[in-house]
Amino acid sequence: MPHKILFVSYDALIGDTAWQCVKEGHDVRYAISTESEREIGDGFVPKVDDWEQHVDWADLVVFDDVLGHGTHAHRLRQLGKRVIGGTPYTDRLEDDRAFGQQELKAAGVTIIPQENFTSFDDAIAFVQANPNRYVIKPSGEAQNLKQLLFVGEDEEGKDVLQVLEDYQRSWATRIKEFQLQRRIVGVEVAAGAFFNGSEFVPPVCVNFEHKKLFPGDIGPSTGEMGTSMFWSEPNRVFSATLAKMESRLRRERFAGYIDVNCIVNSNGIYPLEFTSRFGYPTIMIQQEGITMPIGDFLYQLADGTLTRFKTRTGFQVGVRVVVPPFPFHDQETFERNSKDAVIFFKKPNREGVHIEDVKCVGNEWYVTGGSGVILTVVGLGPTMRQAQRHAYARIENIMIPNMYYRKDIGDRWYEDHDRLHSWGYLR
Hints:
- There is one protein chain.
- The chain is of the alpha+beta class and 427 residues long.
- The chain folds into three domains: 4-93, Rossmann fold (3-Layer(aba) Sandwich); 113-182, ATP-grasp fold, A domain (Dna Ligase, domain 1); 187-422, D-amino Acid Aminotransferase, Chain A, domain 1 (2-Layer Sandwich).
- The chain has helices at 15-23, 69-78, 88-95, 97-106, 120-129, 158-170, 236-240, 246-252, 282-289, 294-303, 331-337, 384-395, 412-422, and strands at 4-9, 27-32, 47-48, 60-63, 83-84, 114-117, 134-138, 150-151, 178-182, 187-196, 200-214, 218-232, 255-265, 268-275, 315-322, 342-345, 353-355, 358-361, 364-367, 373-381, 398-399.
- The strands form four sheets. The protein has an eight-stranded antiparallel β-sheet with strand order 14-13-10-11-12-15-20-17, with helices on both faces.
C-alpha cells in the first residue's frame, strides 16, 4: 500500500532514500531548508518549500539530521504522527560529545578517559601537565567540520599541543567547545541498530568507516569516504554499548537509527561517539541489504510494528565518489571545476548507484549543491572481497570530470577480522 511520506532536511542528506520511495510508488514530498542545497534531488523527488504546511497531508514524516530536528520530531510524535527522528535528548547524544559519554557511563558502559574544554589555554595546560596521546574532537556544530578532528601520534602529546595552538589562532571563533580523549589503540568498529519507539529491531549493523581522504587512511579527515558492513544478530559490541541505552531510548520514544562508534581491543570495548540519526552514506548501503521496500520499512518502524527484518547475507561495501573541493569548502573552486558537471554512464545500468549532491534534467544527471559529495556506489557479495569487486566494477561505469574516490574501501576488514575474531567479538 502506498504511503504519503514527507522528508525534512537541512542539507539534503536524505534525497536518495526519498528517491527510492518514489520508485517504490509512494507519494513523496521533500523539503530542504538550506538555500544553497535546494537544487539537490531536482528531477528525482517532488519538492516543497515549507515542510510544516505538509505535515497534515503526510502519514509518515522523516527527519534526516540532529541539530534541532529532534525537537520537531518529538513535537509531532506527541501529536500522534508517525515520525522517523529523534528528540532533544537523542540530538544531544550526538551534538554534545561530553553528554553522550556521560549517558553511556550512567548506563554502565566503560568509557575512555577524557576532558572537556571551552578554552584552548586550559587544554594546552592540561596536555603539558598530562603528556600522552590524545584525540581532539570538536563538539556542537563545529564537529561537522570533519577535517578538524585530529588523532595524536606523539607519546608526549607534542603534535596535539601544536594543533591546539593552530586551532586557537585559526578556529577559536568556530570551536566553542571540544574534547580531549585519551587515544586507545585497537580496531575501530561501529554497531548500529534501528529502534521502533520501544525496542531495538534486529539484526544489528556492524560497520567499518573509512574517514581519511586517501587510501591507507592518510590525508585530511572527511565525513566519510566509504563504509564496509555486514548484518549480525546482537553481538558483544552491541550488547556492551547500545543495548544498555534501550530504556533511555524507550523513554524518549525514539524511532530511527542509532549507531555508536567504538575502539575495541583485547582489554575491552570503548565507545567513542553516537550517531543518533541515519548515517551518510550508511543508510544508502543499508538499503541495498534490507530486503523489504524501504518505504514500508520506515513506515512500520515509525508505527512500532517492525520487530525484525530480513537482510541479504554476506557483506556490503559502499564507496563515495567525490569532486573538488571536497573535503574542503571553497565555493569558487566548486563553481569553477565541478558545478553542473555531467555524470556520464558508459552503460545504462545504474544499479547500486545512490545519489547525493545530484540533480536530474531530462534524463541527464548533473553535479549540484556545494559539498562535492556526488554518489555512493554499493557492491554486495558473500565475501568482503567479492563485495569490493562488485562496488568498484560499478564505479568503472561512471565518468565525472575530476572525480576521485578511495580504492581500498573494505581492505581494513582482512586484518580487523582476525583481531576481532581472536578477541571473541564476532562470536
